[in-house]
Amino acid sequence: MLVRPRSRRPHVVLTIAVLCMLIALVGCSASGGPAPTSPSPSTPSSTSVNEERIVIKDFRFEPADLTVAPGAKVSVVNEDSAPHTVTAQAANTFDTSTIGGGETATFTAPPTAGAYRYLCDIHPSMTGTLTVR
Prior knowledge:
Largest sheet: 4 strands, mixed
Shape: globular
Helix content: 10-25%
Number of strands: 8
Distance between the termini: 86 Å
């Protein structure tokens, strides 16, 4: 009786097909398609404290009304040549002290929810509101 060896062709074809699919998947993910998105800086994160930003430009706070999480770090960038401050109207809440033209300062938002009005001590017509929630 003559015994024929079993053909390995189906296994080889299946292996090649699986490898082709894997190569195609890896190639698609590196082909310059849309990059995975990450939360924006204003999205609350459970692993780190948010960092928010106020820009002083043309003797205005941008944005003048900012909403942040309790304890968020707030960067203040002074794009004017004149010095400015970001000072809460409620005593001992937050104050950047004087920020020279082209300089940056930071402060920590209050830990308690609420609306905190602030101004520039040097130019009191410059006002804004920091809302903590």
